[in-house]
Amino acid sequence: MTVDLTNVFQQIDGDYENLKELLREAVAIQSVSGDPSKRDETIRMVHWMKEKLEAIGTACELADLGTQELEGKTVKLPPVLLGTLGTDKNKKTLLVYGHLDVQPAAKSDGWDTEPFELVEKDGKLFGRGSSDDKGPVLCWLHAIRAAQKNNIELPVNVKFCFEGMEESGSVGLPELLEREKDRFLSGVDFVCISDSYWLGTKKPCLTYGLRGICSFFVEVTGIKQDLHSGVFGGVIHEPLQDLMWVMAQLTTVDNRIKIPGLYDQVAPLSAAEEKTYDDIEFDVAEFRDSVGAAHLPTEDKKTLLLRRWREPSLAFHGIEGAFYGPGEKTVIPSKVIGKFSIRIVPDMEPEEVNRRTVEYLNKVWAERGSPNIFKPRPGHSAKPWVVDVNDSNFLAGARAMKRVHGVEPDRIREGCSIPITLTFQELTGKSVLLLPLGAADDMAHSQNEKNNKWNYVEGVKTLLAYIMELGSA
Amino acid sequence: MTVDLTNVFQQIDGDYENLKELLREAVAIQSVSGDPSKRDETIRMVHWMKEKLEAIGTACELADLGTQELEGKTVKLPPVLLGTLGTDKNKKTLLVYGHLDVQPAAKSDGWDTEPFELVEKDGKLFGRGSSDDKGPVLCWLHAIRAAQKNNIELPVNVKFCFEGMEESGSVGLPELLEREKDRFLSGVDFVCISDSYWLGTKKPCLTYGLRGICSFFVEVTGIKQDLHSGVFGGVIHEPLQDLMWVMAQLTTVDNRIKIPGLYDQVAPLSAAEEKTYDDIEFDVAEFRDSVGAAHLPTEDKKTLLLRRWREPSLAFHGIEGAFYGPGEKTVIPSKVIGKFSIRIVPDMEPEEVNRRTVEYLNKVWAERGSPNIFKPRPGHSAKPWVVDVNDSNFLAGARAMKRVHGVEPDRIREGCSIPITLTFQELTGKSVLLLPLGAADDMAHSQNEKNNKWNYVEGVKTLLAYIMELGSA
């Protein structure tokens, strides 16, 4: 039943200049979704991709999302590209998600080359979007083209959902998907997203978990306006002094959370799951150096990965309402809002985390004994996501990677959230696979973003192998 | 020897419309020193005042201060008006300081009237600068005019130093005064500044002390760039968590400083000095309500005034380098700088305060045990200022106030710094008197600034009486 792909893989290697040319075209379109002056380019990118999908026989439609207010202007939202390739009732259906927009970039930010000109150097393809996420999106296109060129019938129907607002909060997409639940999303059996990264640079991996988040605002006030620190200093309970004291009670120096019971909600680590950490390729010293830290709270590989992926963490972000400029300003701020967030993991529930956190803050505040006004409140939250590493979608991905790379991929998690993952899982009720193609050092969102030539070409093979493996999934 | 001023005072009362007209003209000149587009008006104000001083026989010169960079433009600094009225070698010499520039103001800020049109209502003269400091500056002019009109010889020579940059940091003035030490400033026997306020609204006072200041920057870093809190949260020693913890060790909830030995440097309070607090008119409840606080760290009148005026205080101002906008941002800041300042009083020395504070911060940091990089450093500092309430200049001011108001003025201090006070004292080596004319509710720097008609007119009398009293000082 398994189709031999040896010759096709060789053809893909030989087709490199064409693969590169298409990526060059895509990178040249400055689809920066966060920049209203580039909104037309972002829309043009969606149309460009529509043509490419239509050229391989996909029935495409552009779902209109209306407008948004951006920097005081009303601007059109880029439409979402929905494509259907194959409607064979005897086949299962794969839904592929990707995004066509990119982060801002300018040579003056510190790029070595023009960010919107694809430049190949030392086996690396530099350019904004080369890895996040235009490269992976084009890998899907190339994979299907390669199959078609070799008259290989795809064992599944493929649907595409490519948006142009991912880097700007996916405005409008969750609502669209909600509306499409019983139409475009009906009949989907598998979902695959290729918009994340390997843990390192050599060994492929599959991602089976993401952390969720609970954000918090802690407001302290008690004087009706900002006060001169000379005139009033010493005879006022300062809101900012209260706030910093309260926030200082949230964590230990080693970044462990002091809110009672929070760790108790974490799903127990089974011996089997713990064992999977043994084989994961991860260099703690390299990670520490990449961050620039002298020491980390833990430098044990397993403990560190567990803390990043399957334990909650609490980060401080800043304070609203206090002086933030350079230099000095001798004012006592009257109303300050501390911002922090807690990353959550299964089986933590956002409501429970919010409740325990606000309860702890109120308890700490009572200990403070300040007459000021204290208002802790939860902000937005997102649930954690974890998939069964033994489901058929996940195993098809693993077999595909082994076929291309010759090694069993690491099973990893990510510490961050990719909210659309959970949306797809909830609306389709099916397994979502995160199948990363790029290396950890691709510098997504940063200067000198690149995609390795090798990752790009092997990515095409991996996605083709994955589609073929889904035939026996 | 004492000249009877009864008739002159009556004439001053009768001259009210002229006093008001001159203030109207001055307020109409929009001498906002912080606004480069109003720089010409600020310069025009200096020239306007020069004409007025010349009209009473003052020999005037304009000291050029060159230019400054403001909002990216090179703009001319307003000259300093130096005037000399009388050079009688047998008389002592009084130096008067005041400023001709004002804070910004616009009706749209919440003024009830046009800020640059003097409006009289309910015995109040509303207008920007009516109280800070055009009103008091004109009181000097009116006082001398009244003496001249009545052929009363001034018992002292008078020198004037009126600047146009006080609201913008007195750029260039200290350097000018340094250069003028042996010329314009030579032979000065008394200095008087009328640019502060009564403690309340009814009872006059004289100000004999100002607090100094020591500013501090506390920098924490340790990671080389801002990090995504999802990807890195939980495995990093966060600089912002360290900073807030360290700052939380600086004070108690009641705003007392925890730095060892700081209070030990405060000059002991003698029984005689303590007794002066008994008679001071100050309503704690009114003060508390004006601030909008539910409770104050102390609500005992004497303790509260001691804490504002003759004890150090420590205020938090904010953090540079962390997220400060509205909403949420899930970033771990890589380098944060906490800002706080300590108000100091005699006999505290800035060097000693800086040393003890940095030493305490380093000790606390060692207790924290974080591997991050910690750099506490002192910012600018200013010495406290206190004058002998029994010196001849101060006693002349007190007699003048008693002559006009019929009551012994309160002896007060201010919690803030007026750095030019110390500059004059150091360069002349003579006593500087702060002689406030305006009421505590004059709203300097704020919307609806006003000068009470009563304070304005009595102010003219007070300054005349003070000049006359200096004859026997």
UniProtKB/TrEMBL annotation, chains A, B:
Binds 2 manganese ions per subunit. Mn(2+) 2 binds at H99, D132, D195. Keywords: Hydrolase, Manganese, Metal-binding, Metalloprotease, Protease. One of its GO terms (biological process) is proteolysis. The record marks H228 as: Important for catalytic activity. The active site is at D101, E166. GO terms for molecular function: metal ion binding; metallodipeptidase activity. Residues 208-365 form the Peptidase M20 dimerisation domain. Transmembrane segments: none annotated. It comes from the Eukaryota. It holds the Pfam family Peptidase_M20. InterPro entries: ArgE/DapE_CS, CNDP/DUG1, Cyt/Met_Dipeptidase, Peptidase_M20, Peptidase_M20_dimer. Its cofactor is Mn(2+). Belongs to the peptidase M20A family. This is Peptidase M20 dimerisation domain-containing protein. It comes from Caenorhabditis latens. The lineage of its organism: Eukaryota, Metazoa, Ecdysozoa, Nematoda, Chromadorea.
